[in-house]
Each structure stands twice: as C-alpha cells, then as structure tokens.
Design a protein that fits this description.
Layout lengths: L1 H9 L3 H20 L7 H18 L4 H9 L19 H6 L6 H21 L2 H22 L6 H29 L3 H42 L5 H9 L3 H6 L9 E4 L4 E6 L7 E7 L4 E7 L10
Antiparallel strand pairs: 1-2, 2-3, 3-4
C-alpha cells in the first residue's frame, strides 16, 4: 500500500486530485442548487469526479512536476502549434492491430467507461453523453499536443471513444432495467428481467473474452507471418550456432514472448500465447527443412507443457 501511495505522489496525481475533489463538490452543489438535474446528489458528484479523474490522469498529473521543475530554475519548452504534427507513429497500429495487448490502450478505455456510464444515468441522453466525451477526448489530445503535458496519440482517441461507448451502453441498459423494476408492471416481470439481465451480462462477458482472444490471436498470427517469412529450419540452426536464437525467436521477436519451445531432429516449434482472460488461444510457428508454418490453435495445446 505504501508503494502505491508513493507512486501516486511521485507522479504528481495527489495534489490535482485533491483539488479536483473539492472542485467537484462545489460543481455538484451548484448544479443541484440551480435545479439543472433531478439526479441524486451522490450520482452527480460521482459523474463530475469521473471527468475530473480523466483530466487529472491525462493532463493535470504533470502540472506538479512542471511547477517543481520551473521553481528549480528549469525552463519550459512548449511545443506550441507545431506539436499538432507530432503524433505518435505507432498509435494507429496499436489501436487497430492488438488493442488488448497494449496497456496504454486498455487503461485509456477503462478511464472513459465510468464517465460514459455515470453521465448517461445523470442526463438520460446517451447520444449527447457520447458526443460530449468524444469532444473532451479530442480537446485533451490537442491540449497535450500544444502544451506537452502528456503525449498526443491516435490510439488514445480510439481507446477513449471505445471506453465512452462501453460506459454509455452500460448506462442505457442500467436505466432500462431500473425503469422496468420500478414501473407499475414490474411485479409480474421482475424475475424475467433479472434472468435477462444476468444472461445479458454473461453473454457480453463471453463475447468480450472470445472477441479479445480472437483479435489478439489474429494480430499475433499476422505479426509472426511477417517476422518469419522466408525462413526455414536451416535459419533456426544458424541462429542457434550464432547464439541469436533468444533474440530471433524467444524474446522480443514478437510482441509476445514464447511460452513453449520444442527442438526435434526435423522440425522446431515455438508457441506464442494469445490468450485473453479465460479463453485459451495461441499461435504455433513451426520450421521444417524448406519452409515455416504459422497456425492458430486453441484449447489444451495452448497450455500443455512444452520442453525448451
């Protein structure tokens, strides 16, 4: 626990978050006082805090280190409008090829899910919520590009929009279920709604796991096919003699390191994991005398021990 606290202090999150919590309380009181929403105060506060959390993690967490740098006599270098041309080169690739394999993409998705969910419940306007959060994401990336507070990345835009969409859909579903439960006709349909809700959650979770594993396996297959195109067993033997095998095959050759490797007289097989949550998937790369094959596999073959 101490390490977590020290991490957040070191990254400058604590001060802006405390300020954000105080500001959120003031904003919530003003909104409720003017009658701008009939949502419960705790829900409005949570919704405001969700946006504050987004701003703190994307922009304001770097303000404290910047101020300390300036007070220490350092200078500030603002990219200015030229920063709008300095987008990450691999951002689009990470967002489209293997988004679930990128920690940055996953964190950006998760960052916008609470905001989409809570603001949908508060406003009851899912389209407006989605558009508002997408606009917020664009503004954040532009501010990062101009000020240098963070890194502007195309992957962030895609991930933020995906997270907002997940949150909005969850908010719409929650609102529907809540309305059905408190309606006059809810009594005779309550158990049906509960069963449908449970089935929907299970189906959505299963779809996410299966889809995530399929996406990860597809991306890894394409990567392996490109990385090992034109190689054969003779190349693997040469890599072994020159002690290049770890770099060429085991570690760093792909975005996934091998979790199994078998050397036989007439073939060499490397297994790369592509599992997602509980769904077992892997990619087998097999070298023979004159070619290499890349296969997608599932099930027990992806978890069975393989001798190195």
């Amino acid at each position: 626990m101490r390490g977590v606290v020290e991490f957040f202090v070191a990254t400058g999150v604590v001060v802006p978050m405390v300020v954000g919590v105080v500001a959120s309380a003031g904003i919530t009181r003003a909104v409720r006082g003017r009658g701008l929403t009939r949502a419960p105060g705790w829900l409005v506060l949570a919704a405001v805090l969700s946006v504050v959390g987004v701003l703190v993690m994307t922009l304001f967490r770097e303000v404290v280190p910047l101020v300390q740098h300036l007070l220490g006599g350092g200078g500030a270098e603002w990219p200015g409008l030229g920063g709008l041309l300095g987008w990450s080169d691999d951002g689009w690739w990470r967002a489209t090829h293997d988004p679930l394999g990128s920690t940055q993409v996953v964190l950006n998705v998760g960052l916008f899910v609470p905001a989409g969910f809570l603001w949908t419940l508060v406003t009851r306007r899912p389209t407006a919520t989605m558009l508002g959060l997408c606009a917020t994401s664009v503004v954040i990336e532009l501010v990062q590009a101009v000020t240098g507070l963070g890194a502007n990345d195309a992957a962030d835009l895609v991930a933020n929009a995906a997270g907002a969409a997940v949150g909005v859909l969850a908010g719409v579903f929650t609102s529907w279920v809540r309305d059905e439960f408190i309606g006059d006709h809810a009594g005779s349909r309550r158990w049906l709604l509960r069963a449908a809700s449970a089935a929907g959650v299970i189906a959505l979770g299963s779809a996410v796991m299966i889809g995530g594993a399929a996406q990860r396996q597809h991306a890894l297959t394409a990567e392996a096919s490109t990385a090992f195109a034109g190689t054969d067993l003779g190349d693997v033997r040469r890599w072994q003699r020159s002690e290049e095998l770890p770099d060429r095959v085991w570690f760093g050759a792909l975005t996934r390191d091998v979790d199994g490797f078998v050397w036989a007289p007439d073939t060499v097989t490397a297994r790369y994991p592509a599992s997602f949550v509980a769904v077992r998937r892997c990619v087998l790369v097999a070298w023979v005398e004159d070619t290499v094959t890349v296969e997608r596999r599932a099930g027990s073959v992806c978890r069975a021990p393989m001798l190195q």
